[in-house]
Amino acid sequence: MHPERIRTFLQEQGEPAYRAQQAIDAICSGRVLSFDDLTTWSKGLREKAAAELPLMSLKEKKILASSSKVAFKALVELADGNSVETVLMSPKPGLWTTCISSQVGCAMACTFCATGKLGLMRNLTAEEITDQVLFWMQYMHVHNMEGRLNNIVYMGMGEPMANLTNVEESLQLLTDPKVFNFGDRHISVSTSGLVPGILRLGKNWPQVNLALSLHVANDIERTAMMPVNKSFNIAKLQAALKEYFTLTNRKVFLEYILLRGENDTPRHAQQLIDFIEGIGKPHLLHVNLIVYNKTGAKYEETPREQSRGFADRLRKAGIHATIRKNLGRDISGACGQLAGEK
Ligand code: SAH
Ligand code: SF4
């Protein structure tokens, strides 16, 4: 659903503008799944819209629910036959977060990530991005699910900052009071470290949360794990975060997947501490330690005890760190496993 499409359609029918807003409000509530259900419109108009105007840019191909019913993963098909994955999860009872994709595949080729193995097929449009949110709102409505979808994270397939024009348009639609009306602070964008994107987000969307996928804090190992580090290395990331803080004064989340023997030793903890202290505002950085999800790559997850030890080292240095809960592992819905299906 793109509001402009509805506005244009109604203009062509010679209908007043408020009819478009009626439809947008109803659709964005998640309770109207087809133009036929739009009772505020005349029967003729409903039928014409239903015949000519696709309400969704994507459709369900497959849904998996975690055994605990706190995470759902959908494979959705786009109009051109490509598919992406999108996730709905409940970190707290009554609250739902959706994890959305920004590209079909990803060009960044991080060695630990299932999406990275696919390469990039194409960017998603703003409508395809926001329709993933709408998809889950409709899903919650149809299945009478308790609670509210109130958080959106751009942590599915793809690198949002390699598709920034469409991602910014999607942010505009999601936060527009006349469209989806989500609060900026309920949205997070995660990046592997494309510095121009970080700065643009800071300038244009200072209230949207930023997450930086750091994963290791020295250039040699980071370049081996994340080729993007060749273009935007540790020093450039530190400089970008400094500037981001000047622009926003907002807390940034550092994502750090703990990989056994690769980035989880005391030396690595110290490098992470140095990285953070080098930026100068440790209270504005929060480290999210992520449990690795198997993707077929050579890595193993860090044992739980050792993860706690890593977190304790950070905390002793005065750094906020949490080990992220891993929802939906049984449906391969957790981060990095969104490889889609062939
Ligand atoms: N491309 C963006 C956003 C999508 S990836 C980025 O890289 O930030 C979202 C998060 O999932 C990132 O923090 C990423 O590093 C993490 N991730 C990727 N593969 C993973 C895996 N196998 N296990 C756990 N997290 C993974
Ligand atoms: Fe792309 Fe993010 Fe996966 Fe890296 S971790 S390959 S940037 S989706």
Structure description:
The chain has 342 residues and is an alpha/beta fold. The protein folds into two domains: 50 residues, DNA polymerase, domain 1 (Orthogonal Bundle); 274 residues, Aldolase class I (TIM Barrel, Alpha-Beta Barrel). 35% of the residues lie in helices and 21% in strands. It contains ten helices and twelve strands. Strands 1-2-3-4-7-8-9-10-11-12 form a ten-stranded mixed β-sheet, covered by helices on one side. α9 runs parallel beside α10. The two termini are 26 Å apart. Iron/sulfur cluster binds next to loops. The site of S-adenosyl-L-homocysteine has 16 residues, from β8 and β10.
Please supply descriptive tags for the structure shown above.
alpha/beta, DNA polymerase, domain 1, 2 domains, two-stranded antiparallel ribbon, 12 strands, 35% helix, 21% strand, elongated
- With strands numbered from the N-terminus, the spatial order across the biggest sheet is 1-2-3-4-7-8-9-10-11-12
Q: What fold name goes in the CATH topology slot of the largest domain?
A: TIM Barrel
The first-level CATH class of the largest domain is given as Alpha Beta
Mean pLDDT reading: 94
Q: Examine the secondary-structure arrangement and name the CATH architecture of the largest domain.
A: Alpha-Beta Barrel
Shape: elongated
Q: Structural class, judged by helices and strands? A: alpha/beta
> Going by CATH, what is the homologous superfamily of the largest domain?
Aldolase class I
How many individual β-strands?
12
**Relative helix content:** 25-40%
List ligands, each type once.
S-adenosyl-L-homocysteine, iron/sulfur cluster
**Could you spell the SSE succession in H and E letters?**
HHHEEEEEEHEHEHEHHEHEHE
- Please summarize the sheet with the most strands: 10 strands, mixed
Spatial gap, N to C terminus: 26 Å
- Count the helices. How many? 10
Share in β-strands: 15-25%
Number of domains: 2
- Poorly predicted runs are none
Give Rg in angstroms.
Answer: 21 Å
